[in-house]
Amino acid sequence: MFLNIVFIIFLLFSYPISASVCEQNKSVDITSDILTCKQKISKLKPHSTASFEAKLELAVLYRQAGDLALANSELEQLLSQSLSISQQYHVTRQLGINAYRQRGYIQSLTYFHKTQKLATQLKNLSYEGQTSNDLANIYQALGDLDTALTLFLNSYDIAKQLNDLKRQAVTLNNLGNISRDINQLDDAIVSFRQAHLLHTQLGNQTKANHTLISLAEVFFKKLQFDKAINLINTTLTQLNNSGANTQASRAYLLLAEIALAQNKLNEAHKWLATQKRTRSLIQNDKVDQRALLIEAKLKQLEGNDTEAQVLLKQGLAKNHNQNSQLTELFYIALAQSQQQSKQYRDALSTLEDYNTMLRQNRTDTANLYQLRLKQADILPNKPQHNYFTLYNILAIFSAFIAGVLLSYKYLAQTSKPLNTVKSAASEEATDTEQDTRQLIVEVMTLSLSIWEQTSSKTRIELAEESKMWKVNIDDGRLRVRTLERYLAIKTLPKKPRWRNIIKTAHYVINHCNEEHEDIHKLKQQIQKLEVLAKSSPHYLT
Questions:
Q1: Which SMART domains does this chain map to (predicted)?
Q2: What is the rounded CA–CA span in Å between residue 313 and residue 296?
Q3: CA 440 centroid distance within chain
Q4: How many CA atoms lie within 13 A of 89 on its CB side?
Q5: Are 33 and 25 in contact (CB under 8 A)?
Q6: Any residues with CB less than 8 A from the CB of 223 and at least 6 apart, and which?
């Protein structure tokens, strides 16, 4: 299964370490906190418990400010001292969090397996809950959502046992991330809102702002751009004033993505430039790979495939050894750019490299962390489906098919066309079918958008009230999987039930505000869909 966005860099690991030695000021000024903490450390007795706790807090502050190098240096110095098992647990855990932030997932996994063993030695239920949460984040980043979900739920159960509201909030946030990644967006919204409520009640505005940005990402995926922008704007001023440059950078990058999706290229340029300025305030010489990918896509939209490919190759040079969804996105974007510019040989070469990465890196990495999972004894030793083997087969097969198609296009470019009339007729029929499928998705997506905006109800309620779609119960939660298949081309059935789509759209029109700006557009799309569907033999039922 593919993870989007891509893009899950800043998950919430942090829990309170102990009673605060370096008390943070109420303005949440991280730079000021760092200076205050260093002053307090200078007055404490070396190697004392208070000194240890203060230095650990200082390392966390460095990370919050975006300076992972200083954070790691502080932690390594602590680890070189004679520490208790509990102190070893805290230092090792912070090193694992830092490795995760740098996308060093396997290294992070190693640290967290150590903390799991230390928590078991200490027989500390709270630490065991932390470890489950931390490990779940790594498995999520590596694409094993089944294991991640199991670990998150275990962490949440422990938090409930301990009545630990902070951990409940963090786990709800992470469950929201998984729901977002598997496109269960309504579930993600519920989880993020509950997490935000708990963080706000607990007075942790930093985590509350983080959750709001995550919620904005969900609205972005739902194409509700105004809601996403409003959420971001509520957090930006506070993020900038507090010196939370990492989170502010993330917010600006999301604004750039939204502008790109709306084809507002000048605005996308503006937000990318702001993101770069904000990121320059972070003491980190590494290039933001997600920003690089977005900039490349912007170049592609501007028709500058040459510069786009330079950026994409730069990203691959940094990521080709990493088993991550970001690497896959770079490969896919590069192949698309090369195909658009009719560089079919180069596109084939890119797909071959992508195929090699899928065969080697994914298999090796999957075997590695599955082995570590058993060694850590995190889950019961029971037969498990080899999800990664299935994923590899599907991904490699997809890359193979893409290669065949590109080969065909390349050969077609270099040879004279045969049977032109027949080919033209075939292409016209194919285009009609593709147009129909695209329109089906547009009608369903627009209908759902109007429904959610005007009624403030979910897709589940639309399915129940319209009686057009089956509602299932999966793991104790309501699902509308059949309806959701009609929201994207790649999941659309081969023979779509277009009459259900039209009936659903009419239901939305009849039960929603007629003054909605998109109602007229939806009516036009319904008429067009009826004409196209009736002209195709695939849509006669």
A1: TPR
A2: 10
A3: 26
A4: 22
A5: yes
A6: 261, 445, 449
- What is the structure's pLDDT at 5? 35
Residue 217 phi, psi (nearest 5): -65, -35
DSSP 226: H
Q: Cα(first)–Cα(last) distance of the chain, in Å?
A: 31
- Taking a C-beta distance cutoff of 8 angstroms, is the pair 449, 224 a contact? yes
* Torsion over CA: 363, 367, 368, 370 (sign): positive
Q: Which two tokens stand for residue 505?
A: 């759209």
Residue 203: what are its φ and ψ, rounded to 5°? 80, 15
Position 217 scores a pLDDT of: 92
Domain ranges (residues) in the chain: 306-379+387-415, 421-539
Q: What pairs with residue 143 in β-bridges? A: none
Report whether 530 contacts 506 (CB < 8 A): no
Q: pLDDT digits over 217-253, tens only?
A: 999 988 888 999 999 998 888 888 877 888 888 899 9
Q: What angle do CA 314, 320, 323 make, to 5 degrees?
A: 135
Residue in 409, 390, 265, 307 with CA at minimum distance from that of residue 351:
409
Single-letter residue type at 122: L
Number of alpha carbons in the 13 Å side-chain half-sphere of residue 110: 8
Given a contact cutoff of 8 angstroms between Cβ atoms, the answer to whether 321 and 360 are in contact is no
**DSSP letter (8 states) at residue 442:** H
For residues 16 and 194, give the distance between their C-alpha atoms in angstroms, rounded to a whole number: 20
What pLDDT, in 10s, does the model give residues 363-386? 655 555 455 455 444 444 444 444
What DSSP state is assigned to residue 83? -
pLDDT above 70 coverage of the chain, percent: 76
| One-letter identity of residue 382 | K
The Cα 171–Cα 152 span in angstroms is: 6
Residue 392 · residue 2 · CB < 8 Å? no
CB–CB of 221/180 below 8 Å? Answer: yes
How far apart are alpha carbons 442 and 462 in whole angstroms? Answer: 17
Work out the angle at residue 123's Cα, subtended by the Cα atoms of residues 118 and 126, and round it to the nearest 5 degrees: 85
Does the predicted model carry a pTM greater than 0.85?
Answer: no
